Every structure is written in structure tokens, then in C-alpha cells.
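Hi P.,

Sorry for the delay on this. The queue was packed all week, but I finally got your sequence through. Input first:
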Amino acid sequence: MSKHHLCKKSSLLLLGCMTVFSACGGNSSSTKPLDSIKTEEAAPHAAGGTTLELYNLKAPVKEIKEWSISISDLANNPGLNPAKLSEVEAALRSEVLDEMETRIYVYRFTPDLKADDDDVSYSGDTPIKTTRAGFPGTFDIGYENGLPTRFTLNEKDFQKSVDEGMLYLDAFEIGLEEYTIAYDSNGIPKSLSGKKMPFFEGGKYTETYSDYKYDDKGNWVKRKVTTPYDTMYQFRSYTY
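Then the structure:
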């Protein structure tokens, strides 16, 4: 982990980082309702969807930085602007924010709109396997109407990582065998529902997403995430 707490998603499996999405700051200078935004023309979608859908993007970007802060931390730090990346970085360096709960994740993309990350596998232009920050393992992706909807743990990859000592379940707060993402009419995630691994006591897991804010290009920069364990705001900053 660097001094500035910048993580690539590929490092999360080893460190057991917890995260969520998020948004604001950087080149994202305004927030608008999604229906009022005219998004840029994107490349034609493959039958199974593209990188844009996987990362909940409406317009292509070169880089995403995302972080989340719990509502309790926000209440304890009323002078902090959680949407401003530089303030969050300073709060992490001074240990005002706990680096184990608030982390900054970096996702980079190639000019042909693919994730610049070995943790996403493609068939043509369609992502077919990915990791998710905070959940151990890689997941095979199933699509509905071009949106990545069904995520199933790749048991072969999972067992290989465990056997080779590359994955430690006790480094994670939760692990899922499978999960499904539900979307609104604009293709924006509304909720995630999954089945927990026996190691994590089994049963169902659900988190919901609400109160979205968007930048001028239609990419979301802030949302509220509610889980069984915590409620937080998630933020994103984009480089276009």
C-alpha cells in the first residue's frame, strides 16, 4: 500500500481491501440528474455488453479513482469535503480517516475502451470475467440486455489462488459465491443481491444504491450505498 493509499484492483485480492464505488472531484465539476444529460456517442455495443457497462460508465474515460466514506466518519469530520480527492488523501495521511475503511482505488483504460488490468478477461470487446473490490475471487459474467447482471464465482480460479497462497479469506469481511445486480431504466445499478460463502456464515447479502449525482458527461460521481453493516457515500473522480 502506497503512502497515498492508491490501490489497483488487482492488489485487492492479496490485501483484502474493502471498497465500493463513488464519485466527485477531479474533472467532474458538476452534478446533474441523468435524464438531463446528453451523453457522448459510444462505440456500438457487443451482444454481451462492453467495458462501459461493467464500470457503470455512460461516456469513455482514461481513468477512474473511487473511494467511499461512512456516514459516521462524515458526521465526525464535518469540515471534510468528501467529494474532493485532495482533502480525502490529506485526511488519510494524517490518519483522520482510517485507511482500512477508506481506500482510493484506481482503474485505468486503454484507448480501445478495455480495462488496463489483468483482472478483467475479454471475449472480443465483451468482459467475461472480473474481480470485485472487497469480494475474494474472480467472477464469470452473465449479461441481460447488454448489462452485466449475473456474477458467478469461478471455483477453479478461486481454489487455485487459495492453494497457491495468493488468497486469504480471513483478510475479507465478506465473500460471495454469486451475486446479481439490478438496474434502473437508465442502466444504473439499483442493488446487489448475493449468496455468501459458508466461510462467511452463508445466507443472503444485499446492498442498495441511491441518491446518484452525475457529471456533465453522464458518468456518476456520487451515490449512497446501504449494506447490512454500514451506510456510506461513494465517490468517483474521472480523467477524460
